[in-house]
Fold this sequence. Notes:
By secondary structure, the chain is mainly α. The chain has 3 helices and no strands.
Amino acid sequence: MSINLDNLALKDGDAFYEALRVLHDGKSPQESAILNFRIILLLANQVGDDEALHGILQVAAEST
Length: 64
């Protein structure tokens, strides 16, 4: 499975980004890291496709 980096799948990416930013407001770096881990695991479960998830990990690793 290829990872779609050309087209934004979110209908309102700016609103999601803002909600994510607000969710982190007032949190310590450690609390934010824990929150991110929870979000990642919940999103991975929602995607539910091992091949896609491994592709996402690969793309993320190449981006750093």
